[in-house]
Amino acid sequence: MSIVKSEVLVVGSGFGGSISASRLVNAGFEVTLLERGPWRDTVPVRSMGISNRAPLPQGARLITHGIRSVRMPLFRKKPLLINNKGFFEAIFGDGLWVFCTSNVGGGSHAYSGLHGRPDNPYYWNGHCAGISSAQMDAYYDEIMDQLGSCRSKPEDRIPCHTMFLRDDEPLTSSGVPDYRVGILHPRECGKPRKIVDSNGTIRWESSLSNDSFLGSESGAKTTLDFALLGPAMKKGLVVKDMCEVLSIRKLVIPQSDGMRYEVEYKNYSTGSFETHAAKHLILAAGGANTARLLLHSRDVTKGLDGMPQLGKWFGGNGDFFAFWAENNPEDLTKSLPIAGLFKVRGSENKANIMRAGWQGVERFPLPQFLKRKLRHQSIIVGMGADVGNGHLHMKGKDFHLKYEKHNNPIYREIDSAFKDIERVTDSRIYSLNTPITVHPIGGARLGASIENGVVGANGEVFDHPGLYVADAAALPAAPGGPPSMTISVWAANVADRLIQRKKGEETKIQN
């Protein structure tokens, strides 16, 4: 069997994978990207000429394409695969449930489009030499500008936005973070226009009705498939969708062509198992799956070794989802996925609280009376920096996730915020006891040395030259707010340091 080879192989196409791959391709690297999920059937992807597309899990498709796979105590050795073109993978751990996406473009299809910095302005300080908040700060604006994000303004007239909360109401948006938004606001509310960008990609302004956590069919929400991967493909990036990496093996004997790692993956399009070698291997399979893949490759298939801190400091960014029976007179489905943050007036609570309407409910396979009811209720989301006390590990071939909610003060803050909201609005909030996160963080953390981390300032695994972690698994702490831009900033740092290293090596050869 022939082995395909690349200078750089990127695993995963979320914010970590797309940012690093696009920057490396633009710098002249030969890059291949493997993604286990499919291209999604959206207006921009169609305009790119991608023919093999899978539907978003909207309407009745939520039943057939909502879940890709499930990991739980009964299926620890191998996940229960429901549909390899499904949208979410569910990981039911001890104390924390994790939902990861599976798409070309990764979590950008399921995020709300909120773009912001960490809650702590000194977030990057003190973790290792060569990384500081002052150094990383410039990346945030650069990437947000690249993704076309902007701040919502009163003149945008976005329905149900928290900026329109009145001074006589018990809830306020004063004093909460004002994130930028990666969604094309309509120039005229209710009349979205077709937009064609400089790459010839077609998208529509938001109709303020269906740019949800289940994807944005119109392309109004900026997703990575068309925003970054499409342009990079025109410059030589090879994207192989429906290819799930199963294991990694470090090549002990130096290869004359510079190859240092081999990955085995399953190609779901052909049903075959294939091998790909690379000089530089960049892991960006998602916070939980990058760490799991490293653990599996070290402890089960024995292709890797070392990494004594692997699996530690895992967390969920304090995510907590609940159902808010607020009985709002407004139709909450007609807005942005999350229309701003809010708090109880006068509160000093540290949690980030936001509301999400049931966008796309008119297409849900539900009775009409329930759809009408849900238009006036919401999902309330609490978020903030947890302490990352989770632990990922293997027991034999079994993958285990253990997390201690009760030792995380952020959940007490969120619980207190929810109770205050119930009190001042005379409404009810219903939640599970177990946190559900869509923002798994850590497990292959940035550190000063192999004694307190897995990767150093350039994202390279301490005891595995040429192996990098470019996604949320490497983040040194929970950002507290939506982490997409912080993941992107880290990935840009990893890519740029690799670019600088190559330039340095070329300069030495020339001299």
Helix/strand layout:
Layout: E1 4-11, H1 15-26, E2 31-34, E3 39-40, H2 43-47, E4 53-54, H3 61-65, E5 67-71, E6 80-81, E7 88-92, E8 97-101, E9 114-115, H4 133-146, E10 171-172, E11 180-181, E12 194-196, E13 202-204, E14 211-212, E15 215-216, H5 224-234, E16 238-240, E17 243-250, E18 261-267, E19 272-283, H6 287-299, E20 320-325, E21 338-344, E22 352-357, H7 368-374, E23 378-383, E24 391-395, E25 398-402, H8 409-425, E26 428-430, E27 436-437, E28 467-469, H9 484-510
Parallel strand pairs: 1-2, 1-19, 2-16, 3-4, 5-7, 8-27, 19-28
Antiparallel strand pairs: 5-6, 7-8, 9-11, 10-21, 12-13, 14-15, 17-18, 18-19, 20-23, 20-26, 21-22, 22-23, 24-25
Helix pairs in contact: 1-5, 1-9, 4-9
Structural class: alpha/beta
For the sheet with most strands, the description reads:
7 strands, mixed
**What is the average of the pLDDT values?**
95
> How would you classify the quaternary structure?
single chain
Pfam family, one: GMC_oxred_C
Keywords: Cholesterol metabolism, FAD, Flavoprotein, Isomerase, Lipid metabolism, Oxidoreductase, Steroid metabolism, Sterol metabolism
Pathway: Steroid metabolism; cholesterol degradation
EC number: 1.1.3.6, 5.3.3.1
Task: Give structural notes.
It comes from Pseudomonas qingdaonensis. Residues 434-489 form the Glucose-methanol-choline oxidoreductase C-terminal domain. Its EC number is 1.1.3.6, 5.3.3.1. The chain has helices at 15-26, 43-47, 61-65, 133-146, 224-234, 287-299, 368-374, 409-425, 484-510, and strands spanning 4-11, 31-34, 39-40, 53-54, 67-71, 80-81, 88-92, 97-101, 114-115, 171-172, 180-181, 194-196, 202-204, 211-212, 215-216, 238-240, 243-250, 261-267, 272-283, 320-325, 338-344, 352-357, 378-383, 391-395, 398-402, 428-430, 436-437, 467-469. The protein contains nine helices and 28 strands. Strands 1, 2, 16, 17, 18, 19 and 28 form a seven-stranded mixed sheet that branches. The model has no long low-confidence stretch (mean pLDDT 95). With 511 residues, the chain is of the alpha/beta class. The two termini are 40 Å apart. It is globular, with a radius of gyration of 22 Å. 22% of the residues lie in helices and 24% in strands.
